[in-house]
Structure formats: structure tokens, C-alpha cells
Design a protein that fits this description.
Shape: elongated
Largest sheet: 2 strands, antiparallel
Strand content: 5-15%
Number of domains: 1
Radius of gyration: 21 Å
Order of helices and strands: HHEEH
Length: 63
């Protein structure tokens, strides 16, 4: 008999760990995207890649 035995990890724990890792990477990339040179200025001015950031444009982008 071996000293080491197989241990079955619950699938819920595996999914929780995977979800936590993906969300951490998502937040990490989203945060450091703010350090691109013109990102903050465009947010302050209210412009998006689709033009002006008026209410109709933002509503369309949110759908």
C-alpha cells in the first residue's frame, strides 16, 4: 500500500477556483487598461469608440 492516496476534489470547489481565477484576471486586465495614454481623457470627455457618449449610444451599447 502506498503512502499517497488519490483524493477526489469536489466539482463545486474546482468550479469555484476556476471562476475566481478568471474573474481575477478579468479585473486585473480591466484595471491596467486604464493606464493606456488616452483612456482616462476619453472617459472624462465622454467619448467612446462608437462616437459621442450620449444617452442613446450608451443605452445601445448596454444591450
Amino acid at each position: 500500500m502506498s503512502k499517497f492516496s488519490e483524493y477526489e476534489v469536489n466539482i463545486k470547489i474546482k468550479l469555484c477556483a476556476l471562476w475566481s481565477a478568471v474573474m481575477s484576471l478579468y479585473i486585473y486586465c480591466d484595471y491596467f487598461e486604464l493606464y493606456t495614454p488616452t483612456k482616462i481623457e476619453s472617459m472624462i470627455n465622454g467619448t467612446t469608440i462608437f462616437g459621442s457618449g450620449d444617452q442613446a449610444t450608451l443605452l445601445g451599447l448596454s444591450r
